[in-house]
Amino acid sequence: MATSVVQKPCSRAFDRPYAELVEEVGLGVTMSVGAGRTIVIEGDPIEHVYRIVSGSVRLYKAVADGRRQIIDFLGAMDCFGLTGLDSHAYSVESITDVSMIHYPRKRLEAAIENQPDLRDQLFRLACTELDRAQQYMLLLGRKSADERVASFLLDLVTRQDDRRGDGVRLHLAMSRQDIADHLGLTIETVSRIFTRFKQAGLISLPDRHAVIVSNVVQLTRMADGGLNG
Predict the structure, then answer these.
(1) Could you tell me which CATH class the domain 144-223 is placed in?
(2) Tell me, what's the pLDDT at 135?
(3) How far apart are alpha carbons 144 and 150 in whole angstroms?
């Protein structure tokens, strides 16, 4: 497992009042990972639960022909490794420099037995992860290419929520190829749809790592199949 690494004890990964509960147990250790590094590999035993403090990572599965399917993109305050499985179902790789906190799984499980509030929050986090997985299945199984891109952008609107006078500004840490691998599209299709959305006044593209959603209502209609691409 390739990581960079500055580590120190830390416990502030969970929202208050849960940060205090984790601090009492003394679980968290911070780690810094450089961009483009592997954090976990699909099939590795799950020994830690991770919570991202800053930066972005991609979760992906390798396909038999050498391609990859990106399952999700995670950023600050997101978790991975929170599962009942014994091994990781996907690989995790840093997109940018990342700071995260990892919790030894066995010690966390022992702490849960004595901390009902901590158990409840971890359960909610696991439910959130399951809900995102179900939404992703719907995205790939039912939606057109335009609807997939619109849904992807709306998900970022919800998660980043950086509202300004000209719309909602989104930071895209991932590349267009990453987006294509996530949505089951080609990079050419993603680029064409971005251009089409721009021409329709739904978004503007100040640079390759930024999108400004100018009309959330219309983009929502697009995601739901209410507008023609």
Answers:
(1) mainly alpha
(2) 67
(3) 10
C-alpha pair distances (Å), 170 with each of 14, 24, 207, 210: 24, 36, 11, 6
What angle do the packed helices 145-160 and 216-223 form, to 10 degrees? 130
Helix (DSSP H) and strand (DSSP E) numbers for the chain: 7, 13
Domain range summary for the chain, segments of one domain joined by + = 7-140, 144-223
Q: How far apart are CA 229 and CA 217, in angstroms?
A: 15
| Residues 179 and 69 sit within 8 Å (Cβ to Cβ) | no
The CA-based dihedral angle spanning residues 168, 36, 128, 99, taken in that order and rounded to the nearest 10 degrees: -90
Give the integer Cα–Cα distance in Å for 80 and 102.
10
The amino acid sitting at 101 is I
**pTM exceeding the 0.90 threshold for the entire prediction:** no
Structure tokens, 166: 């000209």
For residues 28 and 11, the answer to whether their CB atoms sit within 8 Å is yes
Q: What would the mean pLDDT of 93-105 be, rounded to a whole number?
A: 92
Token representation of residue 202: 């739904």
Distance CA 83, CA 112 (A): 14
- The closest of 59, 33, 3, 35 to 181, measured between CA atoms, is 59
State pLDDT tens for residues 15-65: 544 444 455 455 778 899 999 999 999 999 999 988 898 999 999 998 877
Q: Collapse the DSSP code of 14 into the 3-class scheme (helix H, G, I; strand E, B; otherwise coil) and give the result.
A: coil
The CATH number of 7-140, from 3.40.50.300, 2.60.120.10, 3.40.50.2000, 1.20.1730.10, is 2.60.120.10
